[in-house]
Amino acid sequence: MNTRMARTLSLAMAMAAPPAWASPPVLLPGGGHAMARLAHDANVHAEAFRKAVLLSDKVVPFNGSPVALRKSRKFMTALQRKVYSATVSTFDYIPNSGRATPLRIHARSGKSLDATLADIVRHQTPGDTSGSASEAGGRVSDNEVLADAGDARFYPPSADIRATNLQKKDAWVVEPSPEAGPADVSRVIHGTDAELKTLRQLEHEFERNPSLSEAGGTLTGYVSQEVCHSCMAAFEKFASAYKNIDITIYYLDTTAKPSQAALIDTVSDDIDIASKASSVLLRSVRRQTAEALLDPSVLAASDARAAAWSEVAWSDDATLERIAAAEAGSLGLSEACP
């Protein structure tokens, strides 16, 4: 081999090889584009809750007698609040290899649809000590992981992936402890956080299809609020494990007051203004959507429940495979914290 050919081959190998260092995840405030993406996702999640309520056999007390959830204004008001306040996210993974199919993963913070309904029922039922409500970031049972995967029937059929709650072994995040110093770590549970669900789901997809990650790619995410310290620690660990994947996350700045937003501000050249305005408008849209879709005066109609049965989608083979994986506890990395 002559010198020129050797140099050409060396250059080609250097370009093909993954970087020896991990690029840290890039965290940026998002504006109107992020808001539009997240508003669509929030609407899909609210619609799923509408179907779940209509088909639920659970009841809550009203004047000493049980009443269906959809007929209880108190229950539906509490559910509306949970629906429009949950974190929603959508992440796109674009592999560098043309042989691998891009992925889009959607997630909502919190428990499965049925478990969310059950938490509100327990809270509104005097003397019920069968369990306690837990917010995003809490621990979930193995049965609930399967139930969350089974929620797919309430979502429209799609090639996209809906990230589900995590097995206990995957719900832990190891991060530096600010109180104890960088040499120590703390272990926290974030099994129902939208961002961590997405990350573990992506890891699972890489395990199922190694070609997705072998050539590297880009991961771009949109999150409805600031990413918490623990989830950022998880993304940083992911970046270290997959050095050939560039990560950018756009979040909406939730620090603005409702009176400070205007539609024109969502496309402002000042990204901080655009992000705050987009957050305020998204919260307003989500609240209006939840109140409209989960209106007890509409859901209590005699034909509403019957109509919902025709809207429920049966799981396809890919969804059933993911449900089986969740039940077997194979979601996420094997080296997740015990």
- The total beta strand count reads 10
Rounded radius of gyration (Å):
22 Å
Provide the helix percentage. 40-55%
Describe the oligomeric state of these chains in a short phrase: single chain
**Which runs of at least 5 residues are low in confidence (pLDDT < 50)?**
3-19, 132-137, 180-187, 326-338
Keywords: Signal
SSE diagram, text form:
Blueprint: H1 3-16, E1 26-29, H2 32-55, E2 59-62, E3 65-68, H3 73-85, E4 88-95, E5 103-108, H4 113-124, H5 142-150, E6 161-162, E7 172-177, E8 181-189, H6 194-208, H7 211-214, E9 217-223, H8 229-241, E10 245-251, H9 271-293, H10 296-299, H11 304-309, H12 317-328
Parallel strand pairs: 1-10, 5-6, 9-10
Antiparallel strand pairs: 2-3, 4-5, 4-9, 7-8
Helix pairs in contact: 2-9, 3-4, 3-9, 5-12
Signal peptide: 1-22
Keywords: Signal
Structure, explained:
Residues 1-22 form the signal peptide. Keywords: Signal. The chain is α/β, with parallel strands linked by helices and 338 residues long. The protein has one domain. It has helices spanning 3-16, 32-55, 73-85, 113-124, 142-150, 194-208, 211-214, 229-241, 271-293, 296-299, 304-309, 317-328, and strands spanning 26-29, 59-62, 65-68, 88-95, 103-108, 161-162, 172-177, 181-189, 217-223, 245-251. Strand 4 (88-95) and strand 5 form a beta hairpin. Helix 2 (32-55) packs parallel to helix 9 and helix 3 crosses helix 4. The termini are far apart. Mean pLDDT is 79; it is low at 3-19, 132-137, 180-187 and 326-338.
